[in-house]
Write a structure and sequence with these properties.
Helices cover 48% and strands 25% of the residues. By secondary structure, the protein is an alpha/beta fold. A hairpin with a 2-residue loop joins β2 (12-16) and β3 (19-24).
């Protein structure tokens, strides 16, 4: 399922047949099928027509109203939200320590790989500067990542790699 992000200030979301249409000053900015949308996020000054509001509620689609900076102001939630099943699945994953460790390794590993790539690029552009210490720490952290059994140790590796990166 997909989220619809509305960020164009002064625009309006309306419904025509089975399509959602974003307009501004009489011009159509976006037209998409209404099916497949599971939530709408509205940033700043965007209007909803009465018809689209009713459709979203009937379809079980949550609408979040946010400031331009992304601070949540409030939500329009149908009586029976479709996201309850998603939330239950998230709670189940939250209790699964093995899954959390796997996801944490994936995220931290990607971050450290990106750090190493940026250091290598910087080293290529600045051959007069020695980055062997930073590369050694980051590479060592990446190599020891698969052996970690708890999230706290992953956070330690991430901290060491980040300290070397700075």
């Amino acid at each position: 399922m997909a989220a619809l992000y509305l960020t164009e200030q002064g625009s309006k979301l309306r419904k025509a047949s089975q399509r959602l249409i974003v307009e501004k000053n009489g011009e159509t900015l976006l037209e998409i099928p209404a099916y497949g949308i599971d939530r709408v996020l509205i940033f700043g000054a965007v209007q909803l027509s009465t018809q689209v509001t009713g459709f979203l509620l009937e379809s079980g689609i949550d609408v979040s109203f946010l400031s331009m900076n992304g601070k949540l102001k409030g939500k329009l939630v149908p009586v029976q939200s479709m996201n309850v099943f998603l939330r239950l699945a998230q709670y189940e994953r939250f209790r699964d320590e093995e899954y959390k460790l796997k996801i944490a390794k994936s995220i931290i590993g990607a971050k450290m790989m990106n750090q190493r790539t940026i250091i290598l690029r910087y080293q290529r552009n600045h051959p007069d500067v020695d980055f062997s210490g930073e590369l050694g720490i980051t590479s060592s952290s990446i190599e020891s990542l698969p052996d970690q059994k708890v999230i706290a140790s992953l956070m330690g590796l991430e901290g060491a790699s980040s300290a070397a990166y700075v």
